[in-house]
Amino acid sequence: MLYRKIRTYIENHLQSNDDKILIIEGARQIGKSYIIRDVGKELYNNYVEINFVLDYEGEKIFKNVHTTEEFYLKLSMVAGTRLDRYDNTLVFIDEIQQYPQFLTMLKFLREEHRYRFICSGSLLGIALKGTVSVPVGSVILKKMYQIDFEEFLIANDFGKNAIDYLRKSFEQKRTLSPDIHDKVLGLFKRYLLVGGMPDAVNEYLATHNIVKVRETQEAIRTLYGVDASRYEEEAVKKLHIRRIYDMIPSQMENKKKRIIAKDIQNRKGDRFSNYIEEFEYLINSSITIASNAISNPKYPLAESQHKNLLKLYMNDVGMLSSQLFQYNVQPILNDIDSINLGSVYESAVAQELIAHYNKLFYYDNKQKGEVDFLVDDSSTMSVLPIEVKSGKDYTVHSALDNLMSVPDYHIVSSIVFSNEREIKTKGKILYLPIYYVMFMENKIPEIEDLFF
After folding, report:
1. Which residue has the higher pLDDT, 132 or 95?
2. pTM value > 0.90
3. Residue 49: alpha-carbon gap to chain centroid
4. 200 close to 217: Cβ distance less than 8 angstroms
5. In terms of Cα–Cα distance, which of 171, 185, 188, 323 is closest to 245?
6. Integer angstrom CA distances of residue 426 from 100, 329, 366, 379, 431
7. Residue 426, exposed/middle/buried by CB under 10 A (0-12, 13-18, 19+)?
8. 452 pLDDT tier (thresholds 50, 70, 90)
9. Which of 118, 177, 208, 364 gives a 20 to 30 Å CA spacing to 39?
10. Are 414 and 385 in contact (CB under 8 A)?
């Protein structure tokens, strides 16, 4: 079974005295149901699982349920003797967003303490918009992401001691030996091809066959298109959603790497505001990663974002490389000079950063240029710029230099990621191997600073 970091979080919650209902949210096909099911069966004598999407496509037993008593009755019809007491019965509601009224009902299910509940949802950002009463204080929303690079290393038998060594080297800014660097970088390049979808990773581990991996990834892309049809009633908007999603790989190859509104329907004068709901679907469903533009970067970044200027990344770098290179693994594995891998490397970094920082931004200034990423660094209460380089000219970054030269921004340091082995610092710029992005995090201030 694939190791997932979130397993410990789920275990700790279910073994604690906290009776809030945990909802694991994230994109489809990232392993939410699998990990909850595995933990639930291990910890509880009585485990019951209901998938509301399957129910909707089948008998619709739960579709018109609006009270807890109705729910308990319908639950007993499908669970039978597996329902006992709160302390030994776990009910897993999978794909809860299919019936949004249950999001409101969770408050009462918690208060009644008849059974312990845990939920998952893949389009919660969309479902919550249409929910009359969100049960604030009764639920815990925990975001789950694809398999990250550290988990991918573990899946490839990279041991805990080896990962601890990498982490300590990162923290101490210590350059790895050539043999260790080559090993880790080689696995990172494979991660660019395989990505973090569990089915794709399992296929890779079982066969090492790129055709099989690509078939798995394409099946997931098809499923995402089906989801768009399911949750968006207007046929025109369904088409726009699919069009925007399909545009992402080609747009990533452009200089600005943004979806241009007029290109969606090839219609001059089109504005971003005409497609707000379509973009919201793609972001809230977690099938894309959004990065908002900042022209005046100051901590905290959320106060300065431009909502009508954003980049969209595919939520999985393997899905992107599949669209760009299909079955050809050589451009990524062998760093072919004639092929620009910038979009692939940038997408991999976006995928790691969103899991560690929750929100992504980028620097966009007409005079000074564009820097790939900006994140908040709470430990220094400043902005941390991040540039991603896939070629040999990794020390050339005029936009980053321009950004760092502005004293009003009070930027303490910045990072450039590349394939280069050596860790070095030049002024306020730290050069790191690309794989070290797995250890990036928004560090919490010291404990004494948390009380007032």
Report:
1. 95
2. yes
3. 25
4. yes
5. 323
6. 52, 34, 26, 21, 8
7. exposed
8. low
9. 208
10. yes
d(CA 348, CA 381) in angstroms, rounded, equals: 26
- Cβ atoms of 123 and 82 within 8 Å: the answer is no
Among 36, 108, 29, 39, smallest CA distance to 68 is for 108
Question: What single-letter amino acid sits at 221?
Answer: R
- pLDDT over 70 at 131, yes or no: no
Q: What six digits make up the tokens of 343?
A: 């979009």
SS3 359: coil
Sheet holding 21-25, edge to edge: 46-51, 89-94, 116-121, 21-25, 139-143
- Give the tens place of pLDDT for each residue, 327-361: 999 999 987 765 778 899 999 999 999 999 989 99
Half-sphere exposure of 117 (CA within 13 A, CB side): 28
CA pair distance 283, 423, nearest whole angstrom: 35
| Residue type at 39 in one-letter notation | V
Q: Residue 142: which residues within 8 A CB-CB, separation 6 or more? A: 6, 9, 22, 23, 24, 25
The pair of structure tokens assigned to 409 is 């921004």
Q: How far apart are CA 395 and CA 404, in angstroms?
A: 14
In this predicted model, what pLDDT tens digit does every residue of 243-297 receive, in sequence order?
Answer: 889 898 888 767 667 888 888 888 888 888 888 888 988 998 899 999 999 988 9
SS3 336: coil
How many helical (H) and strand (E) elements, i.e. helices and strands, does the chain have? 18, 13
The whole-angstrom separation of Cα 33 and Cα 51 is 9
Burial of residue 199 (number of CB atoms within 10 Å: 0-12, 13-18, 19+):
middle
Rg (CA), the chain: 23
Cβ neighbours around 428 below 10 Å, total:
13
- In contact, 198 and 31? CB cutoff 8 Å: yes
Once rounded to an integer, what is the mean pLDDT over residues 287-316? 88
Between the alpha carbon of residue 327 and those of residues 44, 114, 212, 308, 437, the distances in Å are 44, 52, 10, 35, 26
Residues 172-189, mean pLDDT to the nearest whole number: 97
Higher-confidence position of 392 and 155: 155
Identify residue 137 by its one-letter amino acid code: G
